[in-house]
Amino acid sequence: MRLDIVSIFPEYLDALNISLLGKAQEIGLLEIDIHDLRDHTFDQHKTVDDTPYGGGAGMVMKPEPWALALEEILDASPVEKPVLIVPTPSGEVFNQPAASELADAVHLVFACGRYEGIDERMFHWAHEHFDVRLMSLGDYVLNGGEVAALAMIEAIGRLVPGVVGNPESLVEESHSDDGLLEYPVYTKPSMWREYEVPEILLSGDHAKIAAWRKEQQAERTRTRRPDLWTKHQDMA
Ligand code: ADE
C-alpha cells in the first residue's frame, strides 16, 4: 500500500518509522511519503493561511498550496483516483469497519489541516481527482489532523496482510466482527502481589475457558459500552 501525507508539521509523522509500521516499510509492505505543505508556497514566509471571508476567529488554509501538493502526489499515483482522507472533527466517524475498508486501497493520501480548516473550494477541486473522505476520530477537537492521521494509519496499516506477524491476533480483539470488547488477559506469575489469575484459566479446559472469555466480553461491553452492547444484541 502506498501512503502520502501532507502536513505543515512533517516531523509529527516521524512516529510512522518505528515499531510495526516502520518494519512494514522496511520490508516493502507499506510505502510512506511525508510532504511539507510549505514546499508549495512561493512567498518568503511560506504562507499557508489567511483570514476568513465573512469574519470570525482563527485562520483558514489557502487552497492553492494544497492543490499543488496534491497534484504532485496525483502525478505519481499508481491509481486513477486515489482515496484522499481529510481528518476533521466534522467528518464521518473513523471506526474498525472503516479501517478494514480502507486497508483494501492501493493508495491513500492524508491531508492534515490545521487552524479553522481548509478553504472549501479545495474540496470541490479535490472531488474531481480523488475519492474524498472526511473522517473524524471521535467527538473531540484536536489541534490538527496529524495525530488523527497517525491513529488512522496505524489502524489501517495493521490490517494490511503481513504487517502483523500473527494474523490470528487480529481476530480476537476489541471491535472485531462480533462487536464485543476484548476479554481480560493475564500472564505469569499466577499470583502477583495479592492478586490471583482466575482459576479457570489454569484449568486447561479449553471449552470452559472460551465460554468464560465470552462472558467477560459480554459483561465488559454491557457495562463500558452500552451503545455497542445494544448493537451486538440487535445483530444476534
Ligand atoms: N482534527 C481535529 N480534531 C479531529 C478529530 N476529532 N478527528 C479527526 N481529525 C481531527
Q: Portion of residues in helices? A: 25-40%
Report, as a whole number of angstroms, the end-to-end distance.
35 Å
Count of the domains: 2
Shape by Cα distribution: elongated
| Proportion of beta-strand residues | 15-25%
Order of helices and strands: EHEEEHEHEHEHEEHH
How does this structure look, described?
With 236 residues, the protein is of the alpha/beta class. Helices cover 33% and strands 18% of the residues. The protein has a five-stranded parallel sheet. A two-stranded antiparallel sheet has the order 3-4. It has a two-stranded antiparallel ribbon with strand order 8-9. Helix 2 (63-75) packs parallel to helix 4 and helix 6 (206-224) crosses helix 7. It is elongated, with a radius of gyration of 22 Å. The chain starts with a strand and ends with a helix. It is found in: Cytoplasm. S-adenosyl-L-methionine binds at residues 113, 137-142. It catalyses: guanosine(37) in tRNA + S-adenosyl-L-methionine = N(1)-methylguanosine(37) in tRNA + S-adenosyl-L-homocysteine + H(+). Its EC number is 2.1.1.228.
